[in-house]
Structure formats: structure tokens, C-alpha cells
Amino acid sequence: MLKLRFPSALTADSRVFGSTMNWSILPVVFGLAILAFELVIPSTNAGETAARIRIDIEPLDAGSAGQAFLETLDEPQLQHAVGAINATDRGTWTYFPGPRVGLRLGELKPEQRAAFDRFLAAALSESGVRRVQDVLAIEPISDRGGGVRTGPGEYWIRFFGTPEPGRRSTEIHGGTTDAVPKAWAWRLEGHHLSLNVAIVDDRIVSATPFFFGAAPSRHTDFGEPLALDDARAERLLSSLDPIQQAAARSIGPAPADIRSGTEARPKMPREGGIKATLLSKEQRATLDAMVISLFDVWPAGMTTHLRERWMATDPETIRFAWAGSELRGGPHYWRVQSPALLMEFSNSSPAVDHAHLVLRAVEGEFFGR
Description:
The chain has 369 residues and is of the alpha+beta class. It has two domains: 35-213, no CATH class; 227-361, no CATH class. The chain has helices at 62-70, 75-81, 110-123, 126-138, 227-239, 242-248, 281-295, 300-311, and strands at 35-41, 51-57, 82-83, 103-104, 142-143, 149-150, 155-160, 169-173, 176-180, 183-190, 193-200, 203-206, 210-214, 274-275, 319-324, 332-337, 341-347, 355-361. Strands 3, 4, 7, 10, 11, 12, 13, 14, 15, 16, 17 and 18 form a twelve-stranded mixed sheet that branches. Strands 1-2 form a two-stranded antiparallel sheet. A two-stranded antiparallel ribbon has the order 5-6. A hairpin with a 7-residue loop joins strand 15 and strand 16. The longest helix is centred in the C-terminal third of the chain and has 15 residues, at 281-295.
């Protein structure tokens, strides 16, 4: 398990999943327990067979694993895979199908794919790797024309800046040595998946926009990738008494999709729903678990500060809202909203077969842009 103490040098302006950083922070040593997993990546090209890769991960931090992956790429691939920390595409993201700026996973050779899997295993928790696997595996293989395709190979990895793990560059000024923090970021994105992470000296300072989707939302072979999150929300709704439910369901009909959009800055819905101060201890625990479950996608030590910041949020400013069917078997939408954080879920089509889950930070996304 990756263990990391987040520096106390974060300023009072820090926000959940988005931070203002004091640059005079201390170095941190990474440690990652041995991790093994299997990944099934069906090919999107006709005639190719699925590749089943088993990887035994040696202790590596995300920076080391990212650098090792980049070293497997040739020069043309590197041109696609790496951009500047403030590259023009850094602040763009979407969960719609179509090509992205970056290196397409379906184009990786087996040894490159193995190195990428090692990076993903170092950058995510075990549960995070499984959740990403589920999203990729459930994505149907299709050609929608105009160069727009979907499938497990239609995802793009992009690094902004160069991972430099376990090292800090120094500059000499008048006989003193000043540390120069190393900032880099990475994005993994395609239809129904968007992970955006910024790291400074081996510390996560921003991890949104964060998006998981599934269509169909329930798959006969791979199950329901977003069941954990949706079931908790349904359980919270069912635990509310009639007065509480009236407050939670005060936002009107279920929207067709998530409302925060895909802009560089999220669109915040109007306030509505039940305040956390009106929840019982058990109900509040369920609400917290909904948010914490997304923190669990990352190694626990890298998100301790995010968990603590969420738990310190004034409950008067946290609201839970639900719209649509009272049961998740019917079309529905729900959200958790605070001044710093927005978590939205939508599965509101009549067939209830297209689920979207997003986490956005109000401030501090795309750190370094």
C-alpha cells in the first residue's frame, strides 16, 4: 500500500481535489506494496485476438512507473504521449466518444502495454485498477463512422511534463541550495472514462475531473461498474423519513444527464436537497462513504488529506439530492454538493442502461495550467 503524508504547507485556500501549494514542502519517500492483477484488453481491430496480461508489480511509485513506461516508447509515440504542463489541451476533457490528444492504448505493443499496466497499478489502488478495468471491459466495440470508434483500445494516455520520481532538482543561489518542485500530470481518457491527476514532488494536488460511465449500465459478463456508488445513494434515500425525503427530492425532475458539463470549470447546479445537518449519524456515514469511495480509487496514503478535508467540511454546506424513480431500477439522478466539491450520478434514460458518475472540484483543477 502506498503511504504518503501530505504536507501541512497547504494554504487555507486549498479545496478538495484541488490545491494551492506552498512550494517550500519537504520531500516524501514513496513505498508501494507488491501488487498483482490481470487485465483483459480486447482488440478493436478485426482479426486481432484479445491479450491477457498478468503483471507482478515490484515496488514502484507512480513517477517511476510513468518514466519506465515512457522509456518503452519510440520518438513518434512520445510526441503524442507527452506535452508541456501547460499544453493547450491540458484544460480540456470529455466523456464523449472520439479521438483524444495523446497515445491510443490500442496502438501499444505488448511490452509497452505491460509497462502501461505497471504505471496504472502504481498510480491507482487495487480497487481503482479494478474499477478502471470494469469500465474498459464493458465498453462495446463499435465503429460510429467519421473516425469515431469505441472499445477497450479507444482510450488515450497523456503525460504533461515528465515524471521524475524520488528526485528533486536544485539550484544554487549565493551558496545555498533551493529545492525546485517537480510538477507533472497525467490523463487517461476515452468514452466513459476520464482520469486527470496533477502531482508535485510525488504528492497529488489535483485529481479531478474524475469520470466513470457505463453503457450498458449492467453487463451480463462484467456486472455493474457503478453499482457501489449508486446502491449507497439508494440506501441513503430509502433511510430518509418522509420529511427528509421531501427535502432531498426538492430539485425537480431528473435531468437527462449530469449537469456540471465538460468545461474547464464545472457548472454548479442550484442548491437543493437535504442538508447534512439534518441527517442522522448513520445516514451521514452513508453519505460520507459515497464520497470516500471515489477517494479509494487512489492509493490511500495519497488521499488522506482529501478525506480529512471532506470530513472537515461544514455540514451546513453539504447537500444530498435525488430526482426521478425512488429505486435505482428506474430512471434517476442524484448528487452530493458542497462549496468545494460536486459529485453527480445519472442513469435517467427510460431503459436505465446508461450510467454516468462524475466528481468535480470547484477550484484548483488542472493544476499548473
